[in-house]
Amino acid sequence: MSFVDKTKKAIPENIRPFVIRAVILIIAWELLYNFILRPSGIPDDQLTRIVQVGAMKLLSLFYTDISEDGNVIVLNGSRAVSIARQCNGLELIVLYLGFIFCLPTNAKRMITFGVVGVLVIYILNIIRTALLAAMYDINHSMTEFAHHYVFKIIIYAVVFLGWVLYMKKPKQDAATK
User: Count of domains in the chain?
Assistant: First the structure.
């Protein structure tokens, strides 16, 4: 029995379309990102900048001495937080959208959940960045723990909740029954 036959047998038939889409999507994304997008800085540089500007606007509600130095947010004269490419939310957005794309549904539902999910991830990332900067200014000893654990758990839980809601069958109203 060949590897392909063993794999087909091991993966239940109703799961195969998801797995096939996921494998194709992962390969396509990795090729596109690593050979075209990342070398040109698209969309990383733009997304990093958008998160930085959003976090600074949010922080400006509470701080008067706020500035920037490249990708760094400066609060009260101290470098509070640097937004690296890995922290701009792109990988999480791609993961969220990829999962949604791999599940069968109608285009309207896919687009709705895609747009709303990306906006939620974007807003959470702005809030996370602003809170990290404020935490660094107030008590920087907790910043590393919050960055590596607390905020990741919160954001991944929200993404998981989005997937759960997406997988639920939409309720049909009485008129369509």
Answer: 1
Whole-angstrom Cα distance, residue 36 to residue 169?
37
**88-136 pLDDT, tens digit each:** 999 999 999 999 999 988 999 999 999 999 999 999 999 999 999 999 9
What is the pTM (predicted TM-score) of this model? 0.88
Cα separation, 102 vs 49, in Å, equals 30
Helices in the chain by DSSP H: which ranges?
Answer: 3-10, 16-32, 38-40, 44-59, 90-102, 107-139, 143-145, 151-167
Domain span at 85? 10-168
Q: Does residue 160 contact residue 83 with C-beta atoms inside 8 Å?
A: no
